[in-house]
Design goal:
Rossmann fold, single chain, globular, alpha/beta, disordered N terminus
Length: 337
């Protein structure tokens, strides 16, 4: 109760009335797919094509693609979250003859396509952001301003939860997670506060963690527009779900299944994701990587991808007004050579 009162005071504090996370959590519509028009413009190379929505969520991008192609396209929808798959199935019930649903992580795209006896597709889209359902309704501790159990698993089959990491890792281990996955300046200070707090009793809820971080970071260093615990929540979520490893695995597996001229569209929401996608795209687009002083190529590497977006695309101002959660989205697109 004490923590909840602190959270309420925090949200009402005059210095934080414009805090983005509070705005997003309280005012964002239930489900709006991000950068839909840009996805359609870059992904669709033929209206009767076969596409993969590798992060189906509640089905927003898939629905937009089907509407745009007058139901001529076919889509394979993957999502690691079984509850999201169920909701997406209901949302897309009128398109059921056009969509195949699979409860799989996008890093398993090769297995899914091989199981369906599909050798190539016209395009693949992956929206790496959390769905509105996961943030607002899943009850798994993703939210900064709700008092939920600290789970943070997108896939309920994963062994470790955020509760396990927060209550079992050492100061050094927690600090490393926060620094690497959250780029958190105060990682060690927060880690020490977590270990000290849990020595009295386990840290069980998202509200407890959010307020603990709020108190651990010196007030004069609190960010103006976001909750001080934003990076901490990001870091534990990435660690629990192995998100960066999955992105790298996914891109490596997706490219071989694209037809020549097929597109890979990826939307990311924070710098770690975007930097990783950028570097992987650059590597796939690069030809020979031998030292320039070698008389002839010895690596045999060839370009696999033509990068169509040298700088990432970002949402329009109008979209951000309509859907504040789109504000940090960045989209990169590659075309199979």
């Amino acid at each position: 109760m004490k923590n909840l009162k602190k959270a309420g005071k925090y949200l009402q504090h005059k210095d934080y009335k414009t805090m983005e996370n509070a705005i997003l959590e309280q005012k964002a519509p239930a489900h709006i797919p991000v950068m839909t028009q840009e996805v359609i413009d870059y992904l669709i190379t033929r209206e009767d094509g076969l596409y993969v929505d590798a992060t189906l969520g509640l089905g927003g991008h898939t629905k937009s693609i089907l509407n745009y192609t007058n139901y001529q396209s076919r889509i394979i929808g993957l999502d690691v979250d079984e509850e999201a798959i169920t909701i997406a199935g209901n949302n897309l019930s009128k398109y059921k003859s056009n969509v195949v649903f699979r409860n799989s992580n996008f890093s398993e795209i090769d297995r899914v396509l091989l199981d369906l006896e599909i050798g190539e597709v016209d395009g693949i889209v992956a929206d790496l952001g959390m769905s509105s359902f996961q943030l607002d309704s899943s009850g798994r501790g993703f939210s900064l301003i709700r008092d939920e159990q600290l789970d943070m698993r997108m896939d309920a089959r994963l062994r470790f939860t955020a509760f396990d990491l927060i209550n079992e890792m050492s100061v050094d281990e927690i600090s490393k997670v926060l620094k690497v996955y959250g780029e958190e300046r105060w990682s060690r200070r927060i880690a020490k506060r977590i270990v000290y707090t849990r020595s009295d009793k386990p840290i069980k809820t998202s509200a407890e963690l959010a307020n603990l971080v709020f108190e651990a970071i010196p007030k004069k260093f609190h960010p103006v527009r976001i909750h001080p615990a934003t990076k901490t929540f990001q870091a534990f979520r990435i660690a629990v779900n192995h998100e960066l490893d999955n992105i790298e695995e996914f891109i490596g597996k997706a490219i071989p299944f694209l037809k020549t001229g097929g597109r890979l569209v990826i939307i990311s929401f924070h710098s770690l994701e975007d930097r990783l996608v950028k570097n992987l795209f650059n590597n796939l687009s690069s030809p020979c990587i031998c030292p320039p002083d070698l008389p002839m190529c010895g690596c045999g590497k060839k370009s696999e991808l033509n990068i169509l977006t040298r700088s990432p695309l970002i949402p329009s101002e109008a979209e951000i007004v309509d859907n504040p959660r789109a504000r940090s989205a960045k989209m990169r697109v590659g075309e199979k050579l």
